[in-house]
Structures are given as C-alpha cells and as structure tokens.
Subtilisin-like protease SBT1.7
Amino acid sequence: MKIFFVIFAILACFSCHSMQSDLETYIVQVESPESQISTQPSRMDLESWYKSFMPKTIETASSDEKPQLIYSYHNVIIGFAARLSAKQVKEMEKKPGFIFAWPQRILSLHTTHSPSFLELQQNVGLWRDDNYGEGVIIGLFDTGITPDHPSFSDEGMPPPPAKWKGKCDSNFTGKCNNKLIGAKTYPLNSESPKDEAGHGTHTSSTAAGNFVKGANVYGNAKGTAVGIAPLAHLAMYKVCDNDCLESAILAGMDEAIDDGVDIMSLSLGGGSRPFYYDVIALGAYSAAKRGILVSCSAGNGGPSQSTISNEAPWILTVGASTIDRELKATVMLGNQKLFEGESVFSPKVPDSSFYPLIDPSLNATHIGSRFREPGTLSDPKFKDKIVVCMAGGYVSTIGKGQVVKDAGGVGMILVSIPEYGFSKFADPHVLPALYITFNDGMEILQYINSTSEPTARISFHGTIIGDKEAPVVAAFSSRGPSYASPGILKPDIIGPGNNILAAWHTSVDYEKHTKSAFNIIQGTSMSCSHLSGVAALLKSSHRNWSPSAIKSAIMTTANTLNLANVPILDERLLPADIFAIGAGHVNPLRANDPGLIYDIPIEDYLPYLCGLNYTNQQVGSIVKHKVDCNKVKHIPEAQLNYPSFSITLGDISQTYTRTVTNVGEAKSSYTVEIDSPPGVTVNVKPSTLKFSKLDQKLKYQVTFTRRDDSTSSGIAQGFLKWSCKKYSVRSPIAVVLQPTIGF
Ligand SMILES: *[C@@H]1O[C@H](CO)[C@@H](O)[C@H](O)[C@H]1NC(C)=O
Ligand SMILES: *[C@@H]1O[C@H](CO)[C@@H](O)[C@H](O)[C@H]1NC(C)=O
Ligand SMILES: *[C@@H]1O[C@H](CO)[C@@H](O)[C@H](O)[C@H]1NC(C)=O
Ligand SMILES: *[C@@H]1O[C@H](CO)[C@@H](O)[C@H](O)[C@H]1NC(C)=O
C-alpha cells in the first residue's frame, strides 16, 4: 500500500510541475568573480555576482512562476541553482563569466529492494579495536533522521568538538543532542529533517548508531544493535525525500563544509558523468580540499560491467557484499525436494502444512503474470494456495505478497532473476514467503508442470550465522571499469550491503509497535554507511591523516579471501573479478595500522584532470580557480598516486611512479612481491624500500609490459604487495589488454 502510494505521489508530482510552469531547476556554473575583483570573494560578493546572471525583467506573463535563485553556493561550485526557462538559460549563456548550466538530475537512493524490517544484532564484534570514533563528525546526505530512536541517544557521548558550527533546523531544536549534533533540510517541500522514508535513519545508525540492547522482531535473534563508530557524532543533511535533487545535494554539501564535518556519507547517485557536471564529484572535491573524506555508494547497477557511479578518484567508492548471516526459510515440495531461500518475515506456521502450489503463468496469456501486479490475481483459484511469483517488475516484493494475500493465497515463492545468480535477499512479507534463486525457481516450475497435484510447504528457520562463503559480492553491486576515468580502478572497496539490520523510522511489525524499530535492507547504500563508520574510526585514531591517506589504509589492507580462506566469490559463486571488488573487503582492524600509505596531495589532481583532456573551464569548475592546462604538467590517470592500478595496455610499455609514506615502524624494510596479470610483465624498481624514520616518503617505479608471447585480449588481474615483518601493503592491478595483431 505504502509503496504504491509512493509511486503515485511521484507521478503526480511530475505532472503538476509540467502543468504549472515551463521553468526547471538548473545548476549554473560561472567563473569566479576573481577575474573581475582581485581579492578573495566574500559570500556577499558571490551572491550579488550570481544575481547578475538572473533575468532582469519579469517578461513571462504566460507563466505563473517567476525565475528564482534557489541556492547560492560558495564551497562546492562557483555557481547557483535557479528556476529558469530554457529561453532564459540561452540568454544567460551570453553573459561574460557564464560557463555551463544543466537542468538538475534526480538522483536515487542506493537501496535495491523495498524496505523490509526487523530484528537482531549487528554482527560487528570483529570490527572493533578499542576505538569508537570519538570526536569525529559524520555528515549524512539522506532522507532525514528519526531523532527519538534509541540508536541516536547521546548516552555516553561527549559534546561536539569546538570547531562544530552546524545546527539543528529551528523546528528540530530539542531533537538534537550530543549524538545528533546537526539536522538540516533542503528539499523544498519538506518541513523538517524528520525521516519519512527510513533510509536516512538506517544509514545514520549503521555509521554511528549508539548501542541498543535487545533489538528484535518476531522473537528472532535478540542482540545489541550498534553502529560502526558508536562514539562519532552525526549531522543529517536531508537532501532527499524519496528522490534526491542535485540542487539540494549541492546545498547540503556546501553547508556541511562550513559546519565542520569530518566525513561525508552519500548513499545515493545517478549514472556516470564527466566530473565537471557530476554534482557529487564537484562537491566532494571541495570537501577533500578541506580534509573531509567523502564515502559514496558505488550504485546498484550490477552485475553488468561499467555500471559504477560516484567514481571520482577523490571519493571512496563502495561496493556491496553479503555478511555471514542468513535469514533462512525453506520450501519443501510434494516430491520431498527441499530448496533454501531467505525471508525476514518468519511467522510461526504449523510445520505439517503442505498446500497446493500454483504457477499462475501456466494458465495465463503471458509470463508477465508471474510479476503479480495489483489486480492480476483476483481469481478464486488462488485461495489457500502457495503462489510462485517472479521478482522484478514494477511491484515491490511486499506489494506482490499483498496481491497474493488479497486473493486468498497462503504463501508465496519469489523467484529471483537469472542475472542475480545465487544471490538471495531477505525481504519483509505480509504472508509466509521466501526468496529463492532463479535456478531453484525453474526446478519448482518444472515440478508444478510435471504433476497433477503439486504441493509445497514453507518453513522458517530464523537467523543463521556462520555462512563460510561470506563475504560474497552482492549481485546488485555496481561494477567497473569506470566510464569517467577508466585509468582509476573502481570500486575502491566492498563492505557489508546485503541483509543489513539498522534503525528504522517506524515499526512495520503489525504485532508490536515499538519506538526502537529496526529493519533489514539491501544496497550499496548500506555498504557506504559501513565504510563511513570505518573512516570515522580511522580519522579518530589518526587525526592528521588526509582523506586519501585514510582511503589508502582501507584499500591496501583489505581482505581478498572469504571466511573459508578462498578468494572472494561473486553472485555466480565464481571468483569475483577485480572490477567487482576493487581492493577487496574492508578489514577495519588492519586498516588502522597499514604500515605504508599512498597519499595524494590535493594539487596532484590538477595534472590528472588536465590529463583527462578536459577544457580549462571544465578543470577550473572542479578545482574552483582559474586554470591553464597548457601551463600544467599533464599526467595519465594511472600516474595519480592511487593505491591501485588500472591500465589499458597495448604494445608499448608503460611506467608509473608511486610514493609511499611510512606510517608503521620508523626503521623498516619492505620488499615487493608481484603477482603479474597473465600476459603482462610487471617490473618494480627498486624492489626493496628501506625506511629510517616515520613519515618518510620513498618512491618506486612500476613498468607494465606485454609479454612477447601474449596475444590475448580482455581483462587480466594481479597485484603488487610491499611486505615487511609486520605489514603487508597490497595494491590490486587491473590490465585491459588491447587486441594485438597475431602472427
Ligand atoms: C517547521 O517550520 C516551518 C516554518 O519555519 C513550518 O511551516 C512548519 O510547519 C514546521 N514544521 C513542523 C513539523 O513543525
Ligand atoms: C489451467 O486450466 C485448466 C483448464 O481450464 C485446468 O484444468 C487447470 O487446472 C489449470 N491449471 C492451473 C495450474 O490453474
Ligand atoms: C510442461 O511440460 C510439457 C511436457 O511435459 C512441456 O511441453 C512444456 O513446455 C512444459 N511447460 C513448462 C512451462 O515448463
Ligand atoms: C588526451 O589526449 C592525448 C593526446 O591526444 C591522448 O594521448 C590521451 O589518451 C587523452 N587522454 C584521455 C584520458 O582521453
């Protein structure tokens, strides 16, 4: 019901916009007024400079709406957001100082499945040192927050650091405390930072929720729910309702920079774009310049290649994996065959109850009827039957279940899509139901077709911990290579994003209404907020580390093996490739003490951006000052001091330099270990790095050469690793081999 309402509300909103006026919200980038005024522009200067671009006359008698400047930015871009007509933008283009304008995009939250809810303890014991993220401020850009949820209690929390300048919106005062130290709202139709969607409450509590004892629903596993950095402070910038507007995201990031956040966490995004008109890349650059680490979800476009978003090299781009927890449910067929699936809803059903099983498509005109759209199951023949439905389509899983329930069905088997392989999702349901793989689903359909009286029984087994295959890359997790910058390996890292329990804005448990509602949802949104928490832990214990140092520590110490000590698998249960996992799965304990780091001073991005062949104006709009790329050294992407490598290799060798900084033991000697990608020779000089003091920087060169005998093309992967007694510092290598002429 709720879900349907959301869909209609969005449609209604689109149509009302187009009816009311021909104005759209544009993001407008202009040159810095520096070129006019010689001193650093003040906010007032900027605002009047921006106003000078706005249409002077109110000539639009036909339209109800006047052009209007909505947001004046001063950190994230030199520019503003304004309601304008296409014609007014054309006029604006003629003014000196104008660079570029585009109608704002609507970005989406990076959860996949419809919200589910529930129970149990966050499995984070292994995450923690004696470090709880004290003194660090995480800014979340999301759907708002539920301030009275016990996850946001400030018990045991120190007051915010003195540098904090943020605040709570006027009608949220009294809601903030030493945990939730800031809350602001940006969507125009939103009155307060209160979360009406659940997503922001979930991501906030994952990153830095306080301890909540006894979180449980349906009597399932009881435990303590807690965020990754329980002593970190939270600031909510509500930039989304159910969708996120670019103008609002920029406005939130603009203020968060002034407010003094240490980490920005953005579990949202759109498709890949060049960085000069990707608002998150633009905002994140300004944040990085101020020492703020920006952690973003990689997107839920997997498992297809090149689906990654939020891939600028100054962003930590986070993919998603499973955790070792299943919410197990099974279905047994009349022929005694048993299939395993997952479900959040685990009602107590009598174990002996076999029911008739029905595949609605068998008698329907087309296969689409298995998608279970509203009204498609009014037929009385579904009464007291278990119905097979396909995942996907427009209707959420909970919505499909409702349709089956309304038709008198007693259960539902939800069959995954083929691309999702062995991935299963624990969803909420309104009737006994479970999610099974596509292959299992096909077997069940064959069984139905093969017998005159098919029957099945659904049973629930609750929470099972200890899946040795975990972490497995989630099917939905977006994959590289990056479009915007193929020479930077993305994603950077993967972290927990499947079946993640965290706080929720409302209890969806019909039986028991409780203030401390919890919910399980999936998406790179969830893995992003985990990594934001990890970054807060590192920031707390290493105050002077730059964002790129924190990122390097996370990447070079990542796990590449799963709990069973074999290489991490993907949704097909095949070894996951480098464009699915990047550096691997986050290992927070090791990240806290990485030995060496690959730092990237902010100035290094300039030769990198010029090397992308952007125009001076385009580079200028990212770095926010005038740029002449003709006077700047250009570097290829792979020359950026990144902790990983992504190379496109033809017949000519390529050599890159890296600089590592010693943050381990003063006197230490590292030797290199190379695992060359098949068909490629990797040569590192020197092969030993001897450090005599802390913070010492040493360089090495790495040369990639195609092997004489190699005619293969495609993707090859390997790594190089610097090791000493105590540390091992690993950089993954992706090589795209260009086809060569064979003999
Ligand atoms: C918040 O304040 C605005 C005006 O500042 C008011 O219109 C709105 O009703 C208030 N919202 C709530 C939930 O109190
Ligand atoms: C399909 O329709 C036929 C004939 O109307 C009927 O005999 C059969 O039971 C139906 N099968 C299902 C699975 O509903
Ligand atoms: C059902 O079985 C028949 C033959 O036994 C076969 O021709 C048909 O394709 C099957 N249908 C489905 C949907 O599997
Ligand atoms: C930029 O242009 C140079 C010269 O044409 C070319 O060699 C290089 O590959 C280009 N870089 C990118 C990232 O397209």
The longest strand covers residues 455-465. Confidence is low (pLDDT under 50) at residues 1-19, 113-129, 364-368. The chain is about 20% helix and 25% strand. The first helix runs from residue 2 to 20.
